[in-house]
Amino acid sequence: MTLGVALIAFLAAALISLVGTEVVRTLASRYGIADHPNERRINTRPVPRAGGVAVAVSFVAVGTLLVLAAEPLGIAPGRVPITNGGTAALLIGTLVAALLGFIDDRFDLRARWQFATQLAVALVPIVFGLRVAVLTNPFGSSDLILPDALGLGVTIFWIIGMQNAMNFIDGLDGLSGGIAAIAALTLAAIAAPTTPLLAVLCVALAGALVGFLRHNVHPASIYIGTSGILSVAYALAAISLLGTAKVAAALLILGVPIIDAFFVISGRIAAGRSPFSPDNTHIHRRLLDAGIGHRSAVLVIYAITVALSLAALLLTGSAALYAFAGVLVALGAVILYLSRRGEEGR
Asked: What is the pLDDT of residue 29?
């Protein structure tokens, strides 16, 4: 029954997002909500943005129906329950993130106001009582129980970090949306045995992203925008705090954007610049500089994400953290190699 419900949820969210993205694109074009070409962007013409509004609305609409009808559908919380506060934090927080992100899409907020919106989004789960209470102990078999104050700080850091990681990787058509869809399906597989409702919610999120990707593959007719980056990143971060989809697994699944953000920020700080100053040092730009085509670069990163997702399904606890550390080193070596190859090409 759960598989059938999941399939219906996926198709419903995909259809709503597919049609909703058309509507958003029309309105964005009419009101001039677009990314304009510059030295840091790959588009050579203005492209409408804020497609994330359609993704968030479709996910929240389908997700709300799933939560309200969980018992008759046979997907009521399983052995690991999802509290009412947990589902409210996920769905309401996703909608709030999309709204705040749309403000940036519309008005191009300055960096400090962008950070303020990220912080506001990060506070949503705390309002509903959702926070990181336990972390995997890489040096032992027992988990680390966090004091309340530390747990709140880790929660805020986790959500803001996820938002920036997804923002940094959003540089090629279809890239961030595809990575997020793969991550959502992987988190669904992790949650399915113990928390079927959470698993179906993950599938609905993947469906919403796939519906949007129909318009976002290269050459994209609309971008996901800050509304999508904030809402999708928030949804994935919140899901990892619920049920059995732990932060350690999410770290591995989303290893590419997280590690890319780590190296980009480290490089900017080492160069004496602001960690949020723009440049072209992201892994996807290095792939392009190395002579790999747009679509091929996206497929390469998809493939890495799928491999990391399979590892997350097979590994648990500290093993996932060790795997993430290994990926950090390996991807760092790849970035260094691509950087030198790009310099030789220039």
From this structure: 95
In sequence order, which residues have a C-beta less than 8 Å from that of residue 346 and are 6 or more positions away? 289
C-alpha neighbours within 13 Å on the C-beta side of residue 339 = 13
How many Å apart are CA 187 and CA 155, to the nearest integer?
18
Residue 262 CA to residue 256 CA, distance in Å, equals: 10
Q: What is the pLDDT of residues 248-292, one digit of tens each?
A: 889 899 999 999 998 888 888 888 887 877 777 888 888 888 888
Rounded Cα distance between 116 and 132, Å, is 21
Instruction: Give the number of other CB atoms < 10 A from CB of residue 88.
Output: 17
CA distances from 163 to 13, 115, 231, 240, 344 (A): 22, 10, 8, 14, 33
8 A C-beta contact, residue 233 and residue 166: yes
The stretches of the chain forming alpha helices (DSSP H) are: 2-30, 52-68, 70-73, 84-107, 111-127, 148-169, 175-191, 196-216, 225-239, 247-253, 255-270, 283-289, 294-314, 318-345
Q: What single-letter DSSP state applies at residue 143?
A: P
Tokens representing 78? 């399983």
CB 10 within 8 Å of CB 62:
no
**What's the pTM value of the predicted model, to 2 decimals?**
0.92
Tell me if the bond preceding 219 is cis, omega within 30° of 0: yes
Q: What is the pLDDT of residues 92-129, one digit of tens each?
A: 999 999 999 999 999 999 888 999 999 999 999 999 98
Give the three-class secondary structure for 292.
coil
Backbone angles phi, psi at 35, to 5 degrees: -90, 125
**Residues 6 or more apart whose Cβ sits within 8 Å of residue 99:** 227
Which residue pairs from 311-317 have beta carbons closer than 8 angstroms and sit at least 24 positions apart in sequence? 311/252, 312/186, 312/190, 312/249, 312/252, 312/253, 313/186, 313/189, 313/190, 315/252, 316/249, 317/136, 317/141, 317/248
Q: Please, which pLDDT band fits residue 59 given cuts at 50, 70 and 90?
A: very high
